[in-house]
UniProtKB/TrEMBL annotation:
SUPFAM superfamilies: Thioredoxin-like. Transmembrane segments: none annotated. It comes from Roseibium salinum. GO terms for molecular function: thioredoxin-dependent peroxiredoxin activity. Keywords: Antioxidant, Oxidoreductase, Peroxidase, Redox-active center. This is Peroxiredoxin. The lineage of its organism: Bacteria, Pseudomonadati, Pseudomonadota, Alphaproteobacteria, Hyphomicrobiales. Signal peptide: none annotated. Its EC number is 1.11.1.24. Gene3D superfamilies: Antioxidant, Horf6, Chain A, domain2, Glutaredoxin. The keyword Oxidoreductase applies. PROSITE patterns: THIOREDOXIN_2.
Amino acid sequence: MSALLIGDQVPDFEAESTEGPIRFHEAIEGSWAVLFSHPKDFTPVCTTELGVTARLKDRFEARGVKVFGVSVDPIEDHRAWVGDIKDTQGTALNFPLIADPDRKIATAYGMIHPNADDTLTVRSLFVIGPDKKVKLKIEYPASTGRNFDEVIRVIDSLQLTAKHQVATPANWTSGKDVIIVPSVSDEDAKKKFPEGWKTLKPYLRIVPQPK
Ligand code: BEZ
């Protein structure tokens, strides 16, 4: 199957997880979601990633985002590893960790990059919109843990775009000025942003972040 790209609908699947059986499309229905793979249970970088993600639960929830981890390990390994995460990361796992021992999910989502490793996944992460389409896709090698603050920063940007037709500039963080998307005419922008904006170029219009 060809790679899953931004704008594509995510494949549905049924699988076991640490919180019971999951039908993915049903589980994410109408919600923002994050699905991220880790290469292997009982490995150091993966342990830290799951701990960090568990500690960020409130921030994901505040944005209406459901989080799911997945790896090609069996559910029994996931259950055994959960204790290590609690012991070492100062927090218990608080989101479903999906088992994919037959690599059905990893294959459908293009998480295995055979020239890196032909059986384990890389660190793939998808942010999925309420329309079940891919909004963000990132891929990291096994040796580099991801920055989940960056994932939340991108979710803030995606949700602003969805709600207010603004885009976010390089290195933007929540609260800073944003950009009126080029598809909004000046006439429509006057209605949406009655307080006005700064035009640096006709295509580069800066406005305070909408509330
Ligand atoms: C890790 O999580 O540390 C890891 C997993 C697979 C390969 C290399 C590192």
